[in-house]
Design a protein that fits this description.
Distance between the termini: 12 Å
Strand content: 25-35%
Shape: globular
Number of strands: 14
Strand order of the largest sheet: 2-1-3-4-5-14
Largest sheet: 6 strands, parallel
Radius of gyration: 21 Å
Number of domains: 2
Structural class: alpha/beta
Number of helices: 11
Order of helices and strands: EHEHHEHEHEHEHHHEEEEEEEHHE
Amino acid sequence: MDVTKRYRTVAWATGVVGSAALKRIIAHPQLDLVGVKVYSDDKAGRDAGELVGLPPTGVVTTMDVDEILALRPDCIVYSPMPWDTAEMARILRGGTHIVTPCPFWFPFIQDPETTALLTEACRDGGTNLHASGTNPGGIAERFPLTFSGWCNRIDRITMTEYGDCRDYGSVGVIRELMNLGKTPEEAMNNPIKEALTSFWYEPIEMIAEGLGSEIVDYAQHHDFILAAEPIETAVGTIEAGTIGLNHYRHVGRTREGTEIVQEQVWFMDDLSMGRLESRMDIPRASGWRIHVEGDVELVVDVEVAPDLTQPEKTAQGMSTVGFHCVNAVPDVCDAPDPGIKTYLDLPMTTGRIGTHRTRR
């Protein structure tokens, strides 16, 4: 890798994750921020640094897509909610790489139609698309695969996310994706439920691919606990009788019999769960646990520093998504053979604090 090479980069969307990505683009020693795409009048026309509490950058935000594309950036860190696959295809076809936290981590099996659209756009533009983040995007697949290298027989790999979500301010994620604050009936009839299931099957299938196998059987389980009283959160009141804890469990079984499990426990209370109708026994308020079972059994816990406040933990957890995406930009731009790139196709993504490289 040429650590002195520079990459013209755009931050596309400046929500919670997009703002973290913007901060990282400004700080990254190999990236030059050339544009910022925003979605509201109050953010448009402002200096990018001002938008995220940093010194002025000289880059002014815009809502104009054509203005952004005319900059001819090397890469766009694309993080709007919702995303637009036609827009992504346009960007790729025009010769700009994309790194995104949007769900294209391993789309080849779950969404072959969109895979074909984006792959064709990459080939037309000579570009790459890479989905990154934290979970999925790292914890869900890269870390389990890393620890599988310590093993011989593997019976089961489980990745569990625990999330106290009271301070997470994204209404779309909390109330639509996570179903928190919905009635049980609304949750069971949520049209995004099927899409969410396919999202979690993607890291399961990537792990199987990394192990040299494939998934032959799938199962999913969804249960929840209702709020016993109103709970005030960053996205408004979670009313009594609506979902205060949501528990998803998606399972894939490989041809050889290994189970790969993706599990999420998202809730709107502290660990006592005294404001919920019942309690689920879990080991932490926020964080992740990777459990590998076989003739070697490993439990790996990952969490932000325990002495932080819960809002600080939430903010740092969300920032990791944007930071991880941006740190992947140089490798995605330089990857050969245009197309959709997964962790199985790229070098290890690391942080970058300088441009030194030892002669060897």
